[in-house]
Design goal:
Helix content: 25-40%
Strand content: under 5%
Order of helices and strands: HH
Structural class: mainly alpha
Shape: elongated
Number of strands: 0
Length: 54
């Protein structure tokens, strides 16, 4: 990875955060990227714990 020259007063933590943000911005973004489809993930109430039924 080619890094641009950084500010000498920048702390290692600030540098890491800057690089992380740059990497996230470089990722391809599709339609609805990062969103969970709630409708397809829905379950009836209690379906995940059938032993807790009243």
């Amino acid at each position: 990875m080619d890094e641009p020259p950084h500010d000498p007063s920048e702390t290692p933590l600030q540098r890491a955060l800057r690089l992380k943000k740059a990497a996230l911005e470089a990722r391809p973004k599709g339609p609805g990227a990062g969103k969970v489809q709630r409708g397809s993930a829905a379950q009836p109430a209690g379906a995940s714990k059938p032993w807790v039924k009243r």
